[in-house]
Specification:
Elements lengths: L1 H31 L5 H4 L6 H12 L10 H9 L13 E9 L2 E9 L4 E6 L9 H13 L4 E7 L7 H4 L5 E4 H15 L4 H17 L6 H11 L5 H9 L1 H23 L3 E4 L9 E5 L6 E7 L7 E7 L8 H7 L16 E3 L8 H9 L1 H16 L6
Parallel strand pairs: 3-4, 4-5
Antiparallel strand pairs: 1-2, 2-3, 6-7, 7-8, 8-9, 9-10
Helix pairs in contact: 1-9, 4-7, 7-8, 11-14
Length: 387
Amino acid sequence: MDTQQSFLGQVQNLLTHVNTITKKNTEIANADGSRFNLFRIFGVDHYENTHSAILAELLNPNGTHGLKHKFVQSFLDSLNINKYIDLDYENCTVFTEFQTINGRLDILIRDTNKKAIIIENKIYADDQWKQLKRYNDFAKIEFGEGNYVLLYLTLTGNEASPQSAQNVDYSQISYCNDIINWLNKCVEIAARFPIVRESIVQYINHLKKLTNQDMDTKNKEEIVKLLTKPENIEAAFIISQNMTSIKEGIVYEHFNKDLEEIANELNLVLSQPLKTNVIYSGFGFEVPNWKYFKIYFEFDGSNFMKLGYMLKLKNNEIMCPEEVVNGLKPRFKRHNNNATLPLGWSYLDKYQDWNIDAMKAILSGEMKEIIKNITKDLLNLSSEYEL
């Protein structure tokens, strides 16, 4: 017991030191204004098309940045792409959402010599069926083998799914390393273009937030130094190995209890609590007198990313009357719709991605209030209809 208590005391001491450094980092960020970020305010986080548009504008020699080919040249140098193809970066054209018979390419860079770079940009979405294979088939016909490079861009440099990229030659690149490193070079290039330079700095800070790298370098080094001390290393690894269990504990011990309280407070039935380690996990409420719909929240992918809310059909075989659906549609600001979601869905304005801040919001009770208010809004918007 003494050994266990000693170890727990060591862990507590370690956490206290890390918390002190974290608070210092927050104070620095508050003092220099680095927490202010228009990309975060405008909710750029999960919109792949928006990230593609930002990258494409920088890569475009004719872009509004006014630095001509310097950014795209730096991109090629940073990723060593000219080792594989000799792209004419001074005379290239950049497209987003480029339509082909095999699907839309997120970013296409091509020159007048039929050399090309194709970038498939994945923030949180899963691969479509044979997606990279289809794009590769298009590129073979359009540019010819050896005349193009296919890049698969994700937050942390993940591999494409086997069904998407089977027998396809592609390169993995990441926002957390490759894009941020390139953008840092762009900041140097744009030193005498202050508006461009500061816009890129804000975008870098935003990407660091998305990839959990938004701690000041000196503070990060201090934490690493602390954790790698011989007397702390065991505790550091044990904490790291239990992060999944920590998140599960917060969900099961706190958030699902909050959902039960919301259901009781609003006279609803909690039809589904939240489960962890499930793709497209979600939670929902049923309204006692609703025949067709339930109120539902769902993550658009794995690892608690892109939380949206919706009115979802309770039974796919029992369709809501068309006049009710048509009456409700104008009241809902939705991204899409399908057979089971005839009114579509919306993403949360805050805490779409359940990272550190979202876990803190659960523990503080803020997340409960957000979910409760959204649920009340859905009830109010639907109050005139028999659902």
